[in-house]
Give the backbone structure.
Amino acid sequence: MTLQTQTGKNSGKSVGADSKESPSNRFVRWLKSLRSLNLLLGVTSLGTILFVWEFASPLGIPGVKDVPPPSSVIVAAMDLLVSKQYWAGWGLSFQRIGIGFLIAQLIGIPLGLIMAINRFSFGTVFPIIELLRPIPPVAWIPISIVFWPTREQSVVFIVFLGAFWIVLLNTIGGASQIDRKFKLSALSLGSTPKDLFWKIIFPATIPSIVTGMAVGMGISWEMVVASEMIAGDTGLGYLLWQSFQIGAISHVIVCMFSIGMAGYFSSALIRALGGLATPWRRLH
Amino acid sequence: MAEIGKLSIRHAGKIYDPEGIHVVALEDVSLEIKANEFCVVVGPSGCGKTTLLNTIAGFDQLTGGDISMDGNLLASPGKKLLPGPDRMVVFQHGALFPWKTVMWNITCGPLKQGHMNLAEATEKARELLAQVGLQGIEGQFPEALSGGQKRRVEIIRALMNDPKVLLLDEPFRALDALTKSVVQEHLLELFDFSPKTIFFITHDLEEAIFLADRVAVMTTRPGTIKKIVAVDIPRPRDYRVLTSDRFLELKAELGDAIYEEAQKAFEAGERELA
């Protein structure tokens, strides 16, 4: 109610204030008022959820009554923020993501490009991919523990799998959908096969590779958490599981939000790198 | 000046999928294009105009007859396809490399072929860009340009290679009428400034007459040459030509031939759909 009357007043003011204002200026102001409205809505809904959550457990609503309220989550966060194990968890999870994700790119991108331009390699490798790809990376965890000498390596391997398929398929898809006219005009301009690869096929595939990396990064985080829970003895996923085992549910919730933030930072990094690698697309 | 860029198309034929659905795209097409002649081919959609252009460019193989330029065989059945900078193509929907700047796009040909060094190529590119009213865009990516600007840049990219023949495949199709007339005049300016053999495809009759020395009308599938009309309107031409008596006479003469083919193409299309 208050909200509505307030915005009503605002918009009335901005239209009536000065009729000589240029249309573009008025548009910008309208946009700004919309943004502050959205901010207000967002704060209100978040506040409502926190309020309900805080006071729901004493009411004994099933499902919610065992979840610690925000106040005790904040206390747990204070607790964790000064603990060494928590920050070591961040570092180790990021390290596993970094290594597994990087290896996935280093193998997936070249392999995808080769498969897209060479029919023989496509025919050889694609059936293997189609056989293995439908297996969810989590299902690989036991075999991975058996196969790799250390737990660390098996966790990195699962992270690798999470990112590998998606970047491989995106690279193949991107490189095989390049418009024929680009290759033809490059040939007319005197391109050698090497030029065709480095000046046409590779740059034309970068946007698909970046998309693959962004999706792959998300899956990598899912995988690092799952495999740390099952096979790890460090990392944010392990900390989450260990907190659960000792019944420290507030700590579990802090770990959940921490992993969410870690994933968000990683995606932001990929987006930034993707933007640097595709300057011609920044116009869109 | 030596005769450079004389094209001979003799009994050219092209059949797609001879063992399967057997589509005859070109049948006994013969056309002589003189050096530095602006030749425009008009015809209904799907008549094989683009196929003909692609075989000249070395993108597509002939299944009958042959094509040669200045006495050198370019295409005949079984001949290895060789596109090259002597026959530059400007594509229907444009083929500027989106991931490279305008300057890179324009200079890559002569740099690759070693005709110019970077300084020479850059200077030549600036000169040509200025000639078509496009100063100061060299650092941009193609996507930042308007449709008309892109077409001009692409024509310049082709001209930078000093091709013997310039092949244009409905280059102005996607432009609005006003932009189109401006870009057409720029093309004529470039042509008058340094004449070159031009093979230009369109289905816009007015565009054909406005630009051409000779207009060749193609029949609907199987494509063959139906009629060739010389456009005796003196150069340089500008938009006022479009309302001159001679222009209207030529338009009427060619219009009948094209309408007939368009009608046939339409009926054939109806049959295929039925």
Chain A touches chain B at residues 179, 181-182, 184-191, 195, 199-200, 203-204, 206, 278-281, 283-284 (CB under 8 Å). Chain A has eleven helices and no strands. The radius of gyration of chain A is 26 Å. The longest helix of chain A spans residues 193-231.
